[in-house]
Amino acid sequence: MIDDQAGFRDFLQRILEVDGYRVDVADDGDSGLDALGRLTQPCVVLVDLLMPRVNGITFITRLRDRFGASRFPVIVISALFGAEDVEPPDFPGVRGVIGKPFEPRVVRAAVRHAWEALEQPLPQTGT
Known about the structure:
three-stranded parallel sheet; Rossmann fold; single chain; alpha/beta
């Protein structure tokens, strides 16, 4: 997950870890790309669009140039989108949009949808 605001990163991380996902965080696009380059397994990437230095659009472009469009499905997070049913931006591999502020159920549904695109089994939770 890549977001320059620590509060949003922490909140998203708690939501997803409760559901059994392992969550790595970065505070900008360059750090996120570096972290993804060290991974051996595909994963879902949540990225904020509005960040200093490397914004979400530049990050997505660099991600696709480096890894292609299918290894890391992307969920865009942004205060620019308020509705739950907003269409994903027209970028290869973008699987969903989450508007800020967000509700945990919206985050869970978006991540589940993107995770299924990887054809990976969902994490098992204790519930």
